[in-house]
Fold:
Amino acid sequence: MSNETGKGNQYCKFDSQLLTSFTSSLAIYVVAALVASSFAASITRIFGRTLSMLLGGVVFLAGSALDGAATNVEMLIIGRLLLGVGIGFANQSEMAPAKIREALNIGFQLAITIGILVANAVNYDSNRIKGGFWLESVLLALAAVPAIIMTCFGLVLTRHP
Structure:
C-alpha cells in the first residue's frame, strides 16, 4: 500500500510483489518440511538413520548457504525451500531408538523453542546495527549453525537402522 498521499496503513509501508513473495515463502518452507518428512521416513527405512540425517543436514546447509549468498528474492525462496526440506528430514521421530524416542521428541521441541527465542533476540539486536545488505546476509546464513550440528551428528550416528 502506497503511503505517498498521507493516507494508508502505517504498518504496511511497502508495495512490492517480490517482498510479498519472500514473506509468504514461509508457507513454502512449511509445506517443504511436511513433504520432505514423508520422503525422509522412506529413506530412513530403506537406507538407515545415518544417510537420512546426513542428507537432511547437507540440504539444510545448502539452503542456509543459498540464503546467505542470495542476490535476489528467487534465491531466497529456493533457499527457504531447501531449509524446509532439511527440517523435514530432521523432524522424524522414528529415527530415534524406541526407548529414548519420547525424550528426544521433548528435546527437539525444546530446541525449537530455544531457537525461536534466540532468533527473536538476534532480530531485536540486529535492528539497532547499521549493516545493510551485509548484515541481512549474515543473519540469513546463521541457519548454517544448526545445519552443521545436524550434519556432524549424522556423521557420528550409530550405523544400525
User: Anything to note?
Assistant: The chain has a mean pLDDT of 76. Helices lie at 17-47, 49-68, 73-90, 101-126, 132-141, 144-156.
